[in-house]
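User: Can you help me understand a structure? I only have the sequence.
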Amino acid sequence: MTVKTTLSFTDRHHNFLMAKVKQGSFATASSAVAAAIEQLIEDEVQRENALQAVSSAISERMEMPRSEFVSGEALFRSAFQRMSPD
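Assistant: Let's start by predicting it. Here is the structure, written out as tokens:
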């Protein structure tokens, strides 16, 4: 379903939009706006997935026994050793 709506843009945004249509990047201004909204939707999905992954990782680590914890000092020492050329 298509919904007709009215949008307002700054001169900068309008000029950029029209230039993209003129260059042939998009058939119409509407298709360019639709593509931008689709990108926003995709960005939001990726953001939600990343937050869920971080949340899961934190939950898993919170369930880890303290005996398996690595000290910050040991962690950084290991990282620096990997980064430094031999």
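Now, to help you interpret it: The chain has a mean pLDDT of 93. DSSP finds three helices and no strands in the chain. Let me know which part you'd like to focus on.
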